[in-house]
């Protein structure tokens, strides 16, 4: 855990100078949710990771939570009697798909945990090439946008859960499964949206560099 603990101060370090200073918060976000059950070993740029006993235990805890709530949602939670059978079946299928997606994400990310951090390492290498070409990567702005997007997601999830309680009332098991399934789904959307934005931002930076060189060469040619 040494490398992980050493990297935590990067969360509030400004301005951001590289992708690791931005994405360490994303990594910790993944770790808390069971999608990054590994620890950073050595320097961030090295891409070296290790799986400690704590990581393995946390993976088992996250796995147990998903399976337990999934089972409760299917077998224990009772649906309102005034709900049509078709709607009840559709609701169960929706939660089934949600939990299955979470379960698959946790297991897949654990089995291929070395590839999770390698994504950041590869992005870092691409950034070095783009910076050498004169691109502005806007790391600080990207970091603030990531935090803003995550906060909006959490607010939306909170409003959704409050609305659910006001609509159907509060029952511990039912609310727990509803909260976890919605939170997991929202986290998946947030996580993969942020990961996808890494690719989009690099393409945008590359396009900006190409436009600059094209305009400069065109100007020199005309003169």
Description:
By secondary structure, the protein is mainly alpha-helical. 77% of the residues lie in helices and 2% in strands. It has seven helices and two strands; from the N terminus they run ααββααααα. It has helices at 2-7, 19-32, 53-75, 85-111, 113-132, 139-168, 172-222; strands spanning 39-40, 49-50. It has a two-stranded antiparallel sheet. α2 (19-32) runs antiparallel to α5 and α3 crosses α7. The longest helix has 51 residues, at 172-222. The protein is globular, with a radius of gyration of 22 Å. The chain starts with a helix and ends with a helix. The model has no long low-confidence stretch (mean pLDDT 76). Its main location: membrane. The chain crosses the membrane at residues 57-77, 89-111, 143-166, 178-201.
Summarize the structure.
This protein is mainly α and about 220 residues long. It is about 75% helix and about 0% strand.
Summarize the helix and strand pattern as letters: HHEEHHHHH
* Count of distinct strands: 2
Q: How helical, in percent, are the residues? A: over 70%
Class from secondary-structure proportions: mainly alpha
Strand count, sense and barrel status of the largest sheet are: 2 strands, antiparallel
Give the N-terminus to C-terminus distance in angstroms: 59 Å
- Given the structure, what is the number of helices? 7
Please state roughly what percent of the residues sit in beta strands, choosing from under 5%, 5-15%, 15-25%, 25-35%, 35-45% or over 45%. Answer: under 5%
Instruction: Characterize the overall form.
Output: globular
- Rg result: 22 Å
pLDDT < 50 runs, ≥5 residues: none
Mean pLDDT: 76
Identify the strand order in the major beta sheet: 1-2
Protein name: (northern house mosquito) hypothetical protein
Subcellular location: Cell membrane
Keywords: Cell membrane, Membrane, Transmembrane, Transmembrane helix
Membrane topology: Multi-pass membrane protein
């Amino acid at each position: 855990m040494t490398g992980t603990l050493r990297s935590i101060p990067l969360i509030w370090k400004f301005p951001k100078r590289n992708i690791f200073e931005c994405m360490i918060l994303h990594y910790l976000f993944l770790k808390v949710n069971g999608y990054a059950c590994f620890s950073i070993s050595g320097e961030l740029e090295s891409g070296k990771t290790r799986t400690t006993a704590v990581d393995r235990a946390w993976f088992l805890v996250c796995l147990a939570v998903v399976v337990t709530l999934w089972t409760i949602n299917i077998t224990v939670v009772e649906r309102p009697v005034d709900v049509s059978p078709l709607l009840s079946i559709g609701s169960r299928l929706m939660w089934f798909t949600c939990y299955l997606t979470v379960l698959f994400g946790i297991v897949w990310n654990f089995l291929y945990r070395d590839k999770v951090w390698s994504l950041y390492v590869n992005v870092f290498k691409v950034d070095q090439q783009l910076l050498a070409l004169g691109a502005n990567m806007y790391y600080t702005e990207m970091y603030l946008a990531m935090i803003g997007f995550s906060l909006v997601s959490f607010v939306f999830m909170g409003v959704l859960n409050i609305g659910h309680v006001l609509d159907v009332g509060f029952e511990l098991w039912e609310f727990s499964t509803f909260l976890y399934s919605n939170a997991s789904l929202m986290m998946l959307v947030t996580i993969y949206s942020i990961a996808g934005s890494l690719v989009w931002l690099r393409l945008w930076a590359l396009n900006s560099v190409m436009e600059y060189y094209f305009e400069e060469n065109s100007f020199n040619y005309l003169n």
